[in-house]
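Components:
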Amino acid sequence: MTTVEIFEVGPRDGLQNEKAEIATSDKIALVDLLSTAGFKRIEVASFVSPKWVPQMADSAQVLEGIMRAPGVSYAALTPNMRGLEGAIAAQADEVAVFASASEGFSKANVNATITESLARFAPIMDAAPMPVRGYVSCVAECPYDGATDPADVAKVVAELVAMGCYEVSLGDTIGRATPEQIDAMLKAVTDVCPAEKLAGHFHDTSGRALLNIDVALSHGVRVFDAAVGGLGGCPYAPGAAGNVATEAVLAHVERTGYATGLNADIIARAGQMALALRG
Ligand code: HMG
Ligand code: MG
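Structure:
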């Protein structure tokens, strides 16, 4: 049976947008439960400016407090060298750089043009002692610039792969993409990068995330980011609702005939725990 991997991003993308301060011990408890569910990779931290994303300010304490399960890679976002230094000190197993396919979101999210943000990643790629993943946001729609040209997505993906990212996650940041847009985008992107190096990262604002996952599966993509409880959103992407729920992706892909190796009962419990943290 073909395997689909779900990359759990709830402790980072799921929680980063929550306004009320969530106790570090609660974040640690959520990660510890998720660590028993069968995930190979869990994104738990973000070494960004605490002025920009206050909820992630305790990322080092989260990485210090969790019980690390063997075989699980604990990931952190790193926008610049300062972030990488934090991630190394906290012993993140892998890090992720994040770029945008649209200029409007790039400016709002990291206060830099796309070219400037990619230039910040070069020293990270040189210095990182751990694997580096890449994200491209706004692969179909941008809250500031409207529809994204698939060629612009392909360009940024090619640059991240050339820099050494081991995988590039394609973000429908505001969850507005249609299956037709995802199809056109993936046609362009798979011309410059094999599907084995791609992941889908769908927010579910319009309820089309599972349809978009089906389109991505048809292009050979086998890794999908998701957040337990369907929490999430980006503070710099107005209108961004939650990530597609891990529970929903798990049920959907298993029904479609893929194996995930995940424990649905534990994930259901983690989903309840994540929703309770929302307060
Ligand atoms: P800036 O203001 O242009 O840069 O921010 P700066 O270098 O002038 O730094 C501003 C302040 O932040 C300074 O502090 C720095 O020291 C500090 P001050 O002097 O004002 O006291 N600083 C840092 N602090 C901690 N860790 C750091 C760090 N870097 C600088 N690494 C910057 C530029 C990139 C820092 C800022 O724009 C930022 O942190 N942005 C992050 C925004 C963010 O985290 N967004 C959410 C994640 S992306 C996402 O959710 C999308 C994704 O899920 C995929 C999808 O859905 O599409 C991945
Ligand atoms: Mg996201």
